[in-house]
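Handout, page 2. Input:
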Amino acid sequence: MSETLIASDALLLFHAILLIVGALLPVVNPPGDVPIFLAMTRGCDEATRRSLARRIAIYSFALLAGSMLFGSFVLRLFDLSVSALQAAGGAVV
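Output:
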């Protein structure tokens, strides 16, 4: 019984991870950002580029994790609904 629950939970986690990655990759677009990063760091040595890339990845992760953890709180704080946020995002795009 517990083995089926563990397998079911693992499957749900796998689906959630796929959904999150599938939703974030088109927005973040790492392959499209590489030429921009290289152009902005022209003249920098490899160690500086590596350090900048690491900091960018850490800050981006922190921003996404903070949005996931505190996003609903901020929406409730400003009395916004998800549909209003989607409409505003669609208008911006």
